[in-house]
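In this section we walk through a basic example: taking a raw amino acid sequence and producing a predicted 3D structure, encoded as C-alpha cells. The instruction is simple. Fold the sequence below.
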Amino acid sequence: MNAVLLAGARGASPLTEAFGVDNKAFIPLEGKPMINYVLEVLNSLEEIEEIIVVGPPGELEKLEGKTTFKIVPESGDIIDNLLQGVNNLSLEKPLILLTSDIPMITRESLEDFIKRSRELEADFCYPIIKRESCEEKYPGGVRTYAKLREGSFTGGNIFFVKPHVVESTARKAGEFIALRKKPHLLAMKLGIAFILKYVFKRLTIREAEEKVSRLFGIKARAVITSYPEIGVDVDKLEDLELAEKILRNN
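The resulting C-alpha cell sequence is shown next.
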C-alpha cells in the first residue's frame, strides 16, 4: 500500500505565530520538526511502499536523508493537495492518508488501524476513539467528542482509502467543508431525521456509516481503535505542551 502525508500550510494561527513559522508541520518538537515523527512511523512499516508528502518543497528537502519520501509541491486547499498527492501514486493499491500534526502516532497504532481496515474490505475507513480511552491515556487533553448511542467518540487524523474513490469522495468532502458555516444548508444535505437522532444521542455508529456510504456512493466504515495517539493533533499551544510532555517521557 502507499501513503499520502499532507503538510501544506493552512494559514496563520496563534501556534504558528508563536514560533514565527508559516507551517505548523515544521514547528520544532523535542529537537526535530513535528512532521518527522509521522514520517519516521511511516518509514518503519514494511507494507508501505511509497510515501508522498504534499507541502513546501524547500522545507521538505531539508528532511531528506533522514526519512524516505517523494515531495509533491502544495497547491491550493487541502482537497487540492490531497488530489495532487494521490495522482502521483498507483490506483491499484490502497492508501493511508494522514496529516502531519499527529506527532504522538506510533507504529503499533498505525499497524492496528491498517489491519482492522483491511479486514472490513471497505472503500473508506475512519478511526474513532472512545472518550474513556483518550482521557485515560492523556488526562487533561481537550478534544471534541460526538455523542452516539454507543458512547462519546472523537475522530482520528488518518484515513484508509481505496484509490478509485478518492477523487469523487474528496470533491464531495470539499462541498461539506464549504457548508460547515451554513448549518441550514448542511442540515438539508444530511436530512432532519439524521440530525435529530444525533441531537438526542440516538444515532448509532452503523447509521452514521450508512449515511456516509449513501452520500458518497461508497462503502464507508468506522474503526473503533484503542489508540488515542492517532487522534491527538496539535492545533493549539496547549496541544504542543501536552505533546512535548508525552514525547519527553517516552
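Looking at the output, two observations stand out. The two ends are 29 Å apart (CA to CA). The mean pLDDT is 87. In the next section we compare this with other chains.
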